[in-house]
Design a protein that fits this description.
- With 117 residues, this protein is an all-beta fold.
- The protein is 0% helix and 56% strand.
- Strands 2, 4, 5, 6, 9, 10 and 11 form a 7-stranded mixed beta sheet that branches.
- The termini are far apart.
- The mean pLDDT is 95.
């Protein structure tokens, strides 16, 4: 089992930045895949960024603005979000798993990001 605790969401003006954190605990030694998803009101959950064995991948809508990274010493996954736009407004979820793909089996509780125009 893996427990995930997210933090870092909030309200920011368009053009601003936020950094989301996802602290993992439990059986984390075999985690191979990590990802950040988001779900806007009335929309389906979508993959924003993934990090699988050192390889990153981003949704076209966030390329060049968002960066996913991992601090192994702190067992924490980050999502640095720059040049935020109102359409980035959503609940953001951290996800990890043991297989070499996302989504994995474990989800965080979600953190709200609101970007005002």
């Amino acid at each position: 089992q893996v427990q995930l605790v997210e933090s870092g969401g909030g309200l920011v003006q368009a053009g601003g930045s936020l950094r989301l954190s996802c602290a993992a605990s439990g059986s984390i030694f075999s985690i191979n895949a990590m990802g950040w998803y988001r779900q806007a009101l009335g929309s389906q959950r979508e993959l924003v960024a993934s990090l699988i064995r050192g390889f990153t991948k981003y949704a076209d809508s966030v390329k060049g603005r968002f960066t996913i990274s991992m601090d192994n010493a702190k067992n924490t996954v980050f999502l640095q979000m720059n040049s935020l736009k109102p359409e980035d407004t959503a609940v953001y979820y951290c996800n990890v798993g043991y297989s070499m793909r996302v989504p994995g089996a474990y989800w965080g509780q979600g953190t709200q990001v609101t970007v005002s125009s």
